[in-house]
Every structure is written in structure tokens, then in C-alpha cells.
């Protein structure tokens, strides 16, 4: 239940040994005419230990939503730091390969959808759902975006950020399929609320729904260039 313990330990080992590997070991390899990068090879070997650990742990966690989600969150944080801080290469083995394996990946999709739908329930039942966060700042709030629409698009963006480093396009497309389902689900929810408001088509909530639709369509159009 604490994968961050071993993930953080590995990051510490990589960070603590980098100077020694660069200053002492790399010159020996260079002198011998080797193409091996000492730091990357050290990181790769430690990541292989993590892959073994994950392969053993994940089957035990698959049906505990809280523990499984926590594991995925911690692995994604680990991956982000491994690449951004320690210069790890995408061509080397990574934890995303484990998360891409069929049973694990399908479970990830399932819990991602479950928690996204829960988030949508809470955002639409919130008292501030149809109020703009920036209603008092004219130059920021040209589109009069209600809070629920902004929160929903942030949810989609967070999901993209979580899956964007998956190693294969087919897996990414499955996540895109989930996002399309969520957009359609949100559309249905907006339609249901709108039907309740048809008697007051110039009312506050009806206008907020139109603003939400306009905002979502605009943002999706902006995202169209993002492969």
C-alpha cells in the first residue's frame, strides 16, 4: 500500500549516484571506447527492479480500487520525475509498459472512468455548478464559462496528461475513446438540465448551459491540432 517508498528510494539512488557515475565511471567507459552511458545504464537497471516489483504487486491490487489508483498515481509521478529530472530515455524499459499489459490496462481504464463519472456527479450537483469563477473580472470572463464546464475540461486535460506517455498509439486511442464517452455523457447531462429550463430560456441556468456548450466546443476545436 506504499509503492512510493520503493519508487522514491530508486529516485534517491539515481540522484545520489549521478555525480560519481559521471565523474568516475563514465571516463573509464569512454577511454575503453564503450558507447555505454553509465548514468542511464544505472537507471535502467534500477527501473528493471521496479518492473519486477510491479509485476508481482499489481495482481494483488487489481480489485482494490483505492490501492490500485494509488499505485497508478505514484507510478505516473515517478515516471514524470525520471524523465524530467534524471534524463531517462523513452527507448528504455519503463513502468508504462507494465501499465499497458492487458489485465492491468483494462482495470486502469475502468477505474479512470469510474472516478471521472463520480467527479462529474459532484461538479454538476455543486451549488456553484452554473456560476463562473471569474464573473467579477470582465476581461477574463468573456465567454461566461460556468464552473462545471471548466472543471469538466480540466478533467479531460488531466486524463490526457496521465496517458500521454503510454508506449503505444493503440493504448492511447483506448483512452481517447474513454474521453469521447465522457464528452457524450456530459452532453446528455447538459441536455437533461436544459429540458428542465425550457420554460425560462432567457433564465440564468439556460444561458449558462449555452455558454458551457460554446466553451467546450471552442476548447475541443483548439485541441484538434494535438495529435
Any descriptors?
elongated, mainly alpha, 227 residues, 8 helices, 2 domains
Describe the 3D structure:
- The chain is mainly alpha-helical.
- The chain folds into 2 domains: 100 residues; 126 residues, no CATH class.
- Helix content is 73%, strand content 0%.
- It is built from 8 helices and no strands.
- α6 packs antiparallel against α7, α6 runs parallel beside α8 and α7 runs antiparallel to α8.
- It is elongated, with a radius of gyration of 23 Å.
- The model has no long low-confidence stretch (mean pLDDT 91).
Q: How helical, in percent, are the residues? A: over 70%
From the alpha carbons, calculate the radius of gyration and give it in angstroms. Answer: 23 Å
Quick one: how many beta strands? Answer: 0
SS element count, helices: 8
Instruction: Give the averaged pLDDT, no decimals.
Output: 91
Beta content comes to under 5%
Helix-strand string? HHHHHHHH
Please, what is the oligomeric state?
single chain
What count of domains describes the coordinates? Answer: 2
Q: Which parts are unreliable, with pLDDT below 50 for 5 consecutive residues or more?
A: none
Principal-axes shape call: elongated
The major beta sheet can be summarized as:
none
Amino- and carboxy-terminal Cα gap: 35 Å
Which structural class fits the helix and strand makeup? mainly alpha
Amino acid at each position: 500500500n506504499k509503492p512510493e517508498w520503493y519508487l522514491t528510494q530508486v529516485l534517491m539512488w539515481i540522484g545520489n549516484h549521478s555525480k560519481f557515475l559521471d565523474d568516475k565511471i563514465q571516463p573509464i567507459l569512454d577511454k575503453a571506447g564503450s558507447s555505454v552511458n553509465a548514468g542511464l545504464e544505472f537507471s535502467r537497471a534500477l527501473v528493471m527492479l521496479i518492473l519486477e516489483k510491479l509485476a508481482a504487486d499489481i495482481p494483488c491490487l487489481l480489485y482494490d480500487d483505492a490501492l490500485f489508483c494509488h499505485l497508478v498515481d505514484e507510478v505516473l509521478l515517478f515516471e514524470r520525475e525520471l524523465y524530467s529530472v534524471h534524463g531517462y530515455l523513452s527507448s528504455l524499459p519503463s513502468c508504462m509498459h507494465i501499465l499497458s499489459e492487458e489485465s492491468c490496462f483494462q482495470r486502469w481504464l475502468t477505474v479512470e472512468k469510474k472516478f471521472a463519472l463520480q467527479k462529474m456527479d459532484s461538479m454538476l450537483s455543486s451549488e456553484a455548478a452554473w456560476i463562473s469563477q471569474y464573473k467579477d473580472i470582465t476581461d477574463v470572463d468573456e465567454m461566461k464559462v460556468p464552473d462545471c464546464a471548466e472543471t469538466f475540461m480540466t478533467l479531460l486535460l488531466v486524463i490526457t496528461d496521465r496517458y500521454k506517455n503510454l508506449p503505444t498509439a493503440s493504448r492511447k486511442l483506448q483512452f481517447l475513446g474513454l474521453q469521447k464517452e465522457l464528452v457524450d455523457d456530459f452532453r446528455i447531462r447538459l441536455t437533461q438540465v436544459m429540458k428542465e429550463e425550457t420554460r425560462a430560456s432567457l433564465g440564468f441556468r439556460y444561458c449558462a448551459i449555452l455558454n458551457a456548450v460554446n466553451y467546450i466546443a471552442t476548447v475541443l476545436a483548439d485541441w484538434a491540432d494535438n495529435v
